[in-house]
Amino acid sequence: MQKSIFDILGPIMIGPSSSHTAGAEKIGRVARAIADGSLKKAIFYLHGSFANTYKGHGTDKALVAGILDMEADDERIKESLTLAKSMGISVEFVETDLGDVHPNTVKIVIVKTDDTEVSVIGSSIGGGGIVITKINDDEIEYDGKYPLLIIKHKDIHGVISSITGVVADYGINIATLKVGRQARGELASTVIETDAIVPENAIEKISQLNGINSVRKINAIGGHHV
Amino acid sequence: MYRNASELLEATKNLDCNIWEVVLENEIKISDRTASAIRGQMLETFSVMQNSAAFAQESDIKSISGLIGGDAKKVNEYRKNNKTICGDSVNIAISRALSSSEVNASMGRIVAAPTAGSCGILPAAIITAGEQIAASDEQLVNALLTASGIGQIIAKNATLSGAEGGCQAECGSASAMAAAALVEMYGGSPDAAFHAAAIAISNILGLVCDPVAGLVEVPCANRNAMGVVNAMLCADMALAGVTSIIPFDEMIEAMYKVGRQMPVAFKETALGGIAATPTALRLKTEIFHK
Ligand code: SF4
Predict the structure, then answer these.
(1) In terms of residue numbers, what domain contains A136?
(2) Is B217 in the pocket of ligand 1 (CB under 6 A)?
(3) Is there a single domain that holds both residue A125 and residue A155?
(4) Topology of domain B5-288, per CATH?
(5) Which protein residue has the closest C-alpha to ligand 1 atom 6?
(6) What residue ranges do the domains of chain B occupy?
(7) Of A61, A64, A70, A59, residue with least CA distance to A18
């Protein structure tokens, strides 16, 4: 799909770097949305240019501002490290090599107050644009603009149409749909981007469908103003 | 929808219109918003640009590291009180481009256009030209639409990121976007706009990204000054009828390839170019260990 003109002339942001500051903030914010709950700790594994130059660009402040759910033009980004501390959220930065990935890539491990962990890998691909490439062990390609459902299910006949049926019953339009499986009849995954947020009771219904193992819902952070 | 310059140009010929009209129509389609909503948001975007381009012309400002700040004001004072070499409009544009860059480096509010590092070029070009022709808000928004269309094509077929393509991809793209916008503002044809954009890229082709201490400060602010002047001269050349021998689509493909072939030391890692000079290394130590 073509980029919006506001992806080209935008974001409206706090400097100094669209890839190191605004993009980093967005990855942090999507990671926060994926973790979906209150945070205790975040560890940032920085790769490539992120590792080499993060201090100078304020990438560390931007990432933390992201997990605190600040927007890219929030003037408090400068003070995000202090803010996190005062909220009792501990943060740590580790320079690392994540392999053959985009030069501006970070792996964020979030520990929630219930001690569960979520790991997210994201790249800042320029001009403030981002792509999330991995959530825990699942490979994915997600930019945070649309709400997302990641559904793990058995590879059995009719399961995908029953999932999309539930989504349609709630009057929600599907933007994109991707299906993948390990092998025939094995575990499969269906990833759905929707135009609107799928309500909790719809998620509940999907979880109860025959053959469903798990449903993960990610609320979008939006695309036009960030 | 247009995937490249030749498709966009064909659309302008079929509809007998300017680049900005095709860009606006396309945006209406892909975003499912009205023309007036899009224009409204673009005008808001422009007001952030105006503030960043004006702020450091008059106010004292320092970047986070202290490396830059105050140059926009110096140029503004200089051009007010002296007979300049390049003339007033070029010097005002330089001062505006420096201003946005300095605001950005001090963690102030800017519009990435297309990136934060290159945020001074397009506002300086459009505000300065807009003043000269007493442009209406509508004309200014049209110019931003034209610039966005050029940016969309570069994003689709190459890259806008210094980390991926060097400074040619950031300041080069911004300069090309600005050049095309200026041509249409001054009544030039879509063909002329793309010639200006292609020449703008070719003039900056190969420029490395080598920020001192890894900060978007040196040489970034000065490159914004260069980028706006490059846009102005390319626009004037294209309006005079000068054409680019290499078409825009091939030019950005060349730019992309140069970026791919560029060693990683020249792609925002601060490991090469002027970032690796003895002075830069000394400054880096000073900045991070003070
Ligand atoms: S040198 Fe690098 S950081 Fe500075 S403006 Fe150019 S591309 Fe951006």
Answers:
(1) 5-142
(2) no
(3) no
(4) 2-methylcitrate dehydratase PrpD (1.10.4100)
(5) B167
(6) 5-288
(7) A59
A120 touches chain B (CB under 8 A): no
Across the range B32-48, mean pLDDT stands at 98
Bridge pairing between strands A148-154 and A187-194: antiparallel
> Same domain, yes or no, for A133 and A159?
no
Between CA B24 and CA B32, with CA B28 as vertex, the angle to 5 degrees is 165
- Using omega within 30 degrees of 0 as the cis cutoff, is the peptide bond preceding A16 cis? yes
Q: Which atom of ligand 1 is nearest to the CA of B118?
A: 5
Amino acid residing at B254? A
Residues A158 and A202 occupy one common structural domain: yes
Would you give the distance in Å from CA A8 to the centre of its chain? Answer: 21
The Cα B86–Cα A203 span in angstroms is 64
Give the HSE-up count for residue A225: Cα atoms under 13 Å, Cβ half-sphere. 9
Indicate whether A127 pLDDT > 80: no
- Stronger pLDDT, B230 or A37, i.e. the higher one: B230
8 A C-beta contact, residue A84 and residue A64: yes
| Single residue among A97, A124, A142 that ends a domain in this structure | A142
What's the average model confidence in pLDDT over B149-170?
96
The H or E element that residue B36 is part of is: helix B35-58
Choose one of A142, A160, A187: the last residue of a domain: A142
What distance in Å separates the CA atoms of residue A151 and residue B147, rounded to the nearest whole number?
40
Between helices B19-31 and B173-185, what is the axis angle to 10°? 120
Closest listed residue to residue B279, CA positions, set B222, B212, B214, B210: B212
Q: Tell whether B254 is within 8 A of chain A (Cβ).
A: no
Residue nearest to ligand 1 atom 8, measured at CA: B117
Answer with the residue of higher pLDDT: A171 or A49: A171
Which residue has the CA at smallest separation from atom 3 of ligand 1? B216
Q: Give me the residues of B, 75-114, that contact A with CB < 8 A.
A: 103-114
Residue A226: inside a domain, yes or no?
Answer: no
Crossing angle of helices B220-239 and B88-105, rounded to 10°: 140
Residue type, B106: S
Q: Can you tell me the ipTM of this complex?
A: 0.96
Domains contained in chain A, number: 2
What six digits make up the tokens of B273?
A: 């170019």
Give the whole-angstrom CA distance, residue B176 versus residue A71. 29
For residues B266-277, average pLDDT: 94
Q: What is the pTM of this model?
A: 0.79
Tokens of A22: 């605004």
